[in-house]
Amino acid sequence: SSLKVTGVDFLKSQNTRQHHTDGYNIKNLVVRRGQPFQVQVSLNRELRAGDKLSLRFGIGENPVKNRGSLLSLKPEREDVNGWKISLVKKNGKECLLSVSSSPDAPVGKYNLHVKTGANMFKPENGVIYLLFNPWCEDDVVYMANEAQRKEYVLNDTGYIYVGTAWSIYDRPWNYGQFEEFVLDACMYLLEKSKLSLTDRKNPANVSRAMSALVNANDDNGVLMGSWSGNYISGTSPMDWIGSVTILQKYYKTKKPVRYGQCWVFAGVLNTVMRCLGVPSRCVSTFNAAHDTEENLTVDVYLNEKGEKLNSLSFDSVWNFHVWNDVWMRRTDLPEGFDGWQAIDSTPQEQSQGLFQCGPCPVKAVREGDVYLPYDGKFVYAEVNADQVYWLVKKVNGKEKYFKLGTEIKDIGQNISTKAVGQNRREDITREYKYPEGSKEERMSMQRAYSFIRPVGMGPRSGYASSRQTLGGNTQPLVLRDPVTKTGLHLQITNTEALHPGNPLEMAITVKTSTPGNWTVELTGSCQLQYYTGKVEANLGTIKETIRLEGTSEMQIPLKIAPDAYMKTLSSMDGEVLILVTAIAEVKETNDKLTKETSMRFEYPPITVQMPETAKLYNDFTCALMFKNKLNVTLENCKLLVEGLGLFKMTTFDQGDIMPGRIMKSEIVCTPTRLGEKKLVAKLISNQIKGISSEKAIVVTE
Prior knowledge:
The chain folds into four domains: 5-131, Immunoglobulins (Immunoglobulin-like, Sandwich); 146-451, Transglutaminase-like (Coagulation Factor XIII, Chain A, domain 2, Alpha-Beta Complex), CATH 3.90.260; 488-600, Sandwich (Immunoglobulin-like); 606-699, Immunoglobulin-like, CATH 2.60.40. Helices cover 16% and strands 41% of the residues. The protein has twelve helices and 36 strands. The strands form nine sheets. Strands 2, 4, 5, 8, 9 and 10 form a six-stranded mixed beta sheet that branches. The protein has a six-stranded antiparallel beta sheet with strand order 19-18-17-15-22-23, sandwiched between helices. Strands 24, 25, 26, 27 and 28 form a five-stranded antiparallel beta sheet that branches. Strand 25 and strand 26 (535-560) form a beta hairpin. The radius of gyration is 29 Å and the shape is elongated. Homodimer. Its cofactor is Ca(2+). One of its GO terms (molecular function) is protein-glutamine gamma-glutamyltransferase activity. It catalyses: L-glutaminyl-[protein] + L-lysyl-[protein] = [protein]-L-lysyl-N(6)-5-L-glutamyl-[protein] + NH4(+).
């Protein structure tokens, strides 16, 4: 009788354990390339010497052999495109086969059919998902360190660092790469990318395509960006606590989800890359330059009151910006650029006609090799541009620009990511740049400049006419501004905690350090701005003339009453910061100095109370408490709660919480997975955006 297949067992639990894919919440078999997996084939009779048996793996719409999209594998034959199968053992009508895929196979979904002679068998759930393999030495995403693989591939929770260089804080984020439909959403993005099979072998091409598809620009991708402050027609970027809801919604509707800002784009791209098997981390840079003209300077314009002006420049300095690093060997580049590569899905600038960015080798940024693909100049400028301050004065009814000075150390500070295996911030600035002022830094900078060739150093506003007021100012670039003759120094601090509803109490300290009598004109201003550097409101200014002698200092207070800012703060939806700018001018020497500091509001905490351990499938109760210690009513409060493997994302309306009142909520959680799991809670209201907290619990059998 002719040989027929009666069934195929994908031995899911054993294979997925060996392939570190047992976390994926999916019926199908998920395996990693370059590593063998086993399938058990049941037949209608015993396998004999002359029988023909082959496994056929097809990828894409119409798989064909000559395009490499259909692989027909026979036991003990030579490999096909680096794949081969072998017979492990025969046992009556059963035979156990081992399948080894190539370590550079295209990633994606493969349809398996088993052919015996003229008979073709199509197994149930016969679609196999093939991913990149950081555990396989021959895969270009190979990562040698197990603790790093656990963090950068398998950890489904983490932190994204936000705030200001002055006060960094962690925002818990649920990546959730193993949750239901997330892998399917990633596979849908791969198909949507129209990458060729050859391109799908290479994580550099895949990560570049994903950086384009996570934003909705050009291609109806996952997330629509918005920095408008009005998010009525969607979800405010502040209100997400993870990627899962976003990717599930996108997969279901196939329409962009509204709305994202940089940390949301980075959180989702991190999920996508980890889900596909590429080691990935979220990277936050404080004071990140968005240099539209690639000349490594960003201009900041101040009026005579010391207030920053919005409208003049297309460049900006973001208080923080978040992108991703992905780990791989770069086979397309000269040696020395393997390892972390920066990719960015926040739609800022087009690259080769699409909103995509990277992969750009982090080592190339450090060495100044900005000509290397992809987008080296843009990433280099984000962490290395200089800020040039200009004072805009009206002279005879015309606006004139006066250069106040250049700040060379501020951009690209405290580059941060979550530490491996620990809930703390790791500073990775040294991976991106050499120490400020070191010989290596200067060499790297000169190298970068030789590829970028900055044009003149005039101010770059959107208006050509204003350029002329400087008269051909194209002096060669000075890497360091000269120290002022008076040793003038400015420092900005807050003297009381910055609680919404309280007066904002800050101070500007002016110091001189050289002998002589000095008259200093101090101008200071306080503004509310979004994290992108866009000013939303002027809150107040001071102007004082102070006299200092030799080495001395004086502290000038700057105080803003609650009435001056609370209304604006309630109407702003987003990451809002307090910007203080100071300009000091020494009468005797004409020295000018400017300094700005951004600070964030401080909020009372949410406390999460729950047991330290729980048993699988046994419910436990979790209590969430919040006391409003502010002296303003928090209107329209919502509590968002999500715990991967514990509690599905839910929003609870809490109404208004008066000053001094305590909010208490109890939820019942059901642990569905083993190991350490986290519950994340977030409180949002009109007055405050995003107080978050988390608590871990260990789930045992």
